[in-house]
Design brief:
This protein is an alpha/beta fold. It has one domain: Alpha-Beta Barrel (TIM Barrel). Helix 2 runs parallel beside helix 3, helix 5 crosses helix 6 and helix 10 packs across helix 11. The chain is globular and about 45 Å long. The termini are close together.
């Protein structure tokens, strides 16, 4: 199983003071050297954390592992993606007032738009994933529009208050992961995953990759970024019996 580390919140700290540190590029290099398999970042329309300059610098310095650019399906973001050429883009929904992404992209409702939107990106050799809720209708629509992969939103699982609800959401993720894999999509997952809840998701064999940001960056305050990445990678590999 691969671990993509989302570096957005390094930039969040920087933007809190509108200064030059901490530098998300330096963070990406530490994350890479600590064993992450991918650098994930979200260039939001409101530029609340990652900035355009960060994106171009990342492309310059990160060569050994893939870049995964999360973005809203807008023409502005498409232009940037086609210029930067990350190995993958992940299309996500955005609301200006949200604290963090609140749910998956509703692919069903914008199928025609996404099918056309994705064409130029795939033509440029960039893989396309869609960040969606774990629902079969969204998975079917993702295949129909030409996505290479889906990333299942694990927020409801992560936010579950009872063991019963947690198991229900975990079963839902597992069921839809199996379905997505069975129809030919690569299956990833992420959102709200922490050191205490990641292993049950990591055990789902059909999920090939987890993208985790906030928990790693938050705990790096206490452990250091390198150790925070290593601990998360160790938990994931232990869950898979690969450590």
């Amino acid at each position: 199983m691969r671990l993509g580390v989302n570096i957005d919140h390094i930039a969040t700290l920087r933007e809190a003071r509108k200064t030059f540190e901490p530098d998300p590029i330096k963070g990406a290099l530490i994350v890479r050297d600590a064993g992450a398999d991918q650098i994930t970042f979200h260039l939001r329309e409101d530029r609340r954390h990652i900035q355009d300059e960060d994106v171009y610098k990342l492309r310059t310095v990160i060569k050994e592992i893939p870049l995964n650019m999360e973005m809203a399906p807008t023409e502005e973001m498409k232009r940037i993606a086609l210029d930067v050429k990350p190995e993958r883009i992940t299309l996500v929904p955005e609301k200006r007032e949200e604290i963090t992404t609140e749910g998956g992209l509703d692919v069903v409702s914008i199928k025609d738009y996404l099918e056309e939107y994705i064409k130029d990106i795939k033509k440029a050799g960039i893989k396309v994933a869609l960040f969606i809720d774990p629902e079969e209708k969204q998975i079917d629509a993702s295949l129909d529009v030409g996505a290479d992969a889906i990333e299942l939103h694990t927020g409801e699982y992560a936010n579950s208050k009872t063991d019963t609800e947690r198991k229900k959401q975990l079963d839902r993720i597992e069921r839809t992961a199996k379905y997505g894999k069975s129809i030919g999509l690569n299956v990833f997952a992420g959102h709200g995953l922490t050191y205490t809840n990641v292993q049950p998701v990591a055990k789902i064999r059909e999920i090939e990759e987890l993208n985790i940001g906030h928990s790693i960056i938050a705990n790096s305050v206490f452990w250091g970024l390198e150790e925070a990445v290593r601990k998360m990678k160790r938990l994931i590999l232990e869950a898979r019996g690969e450590f």
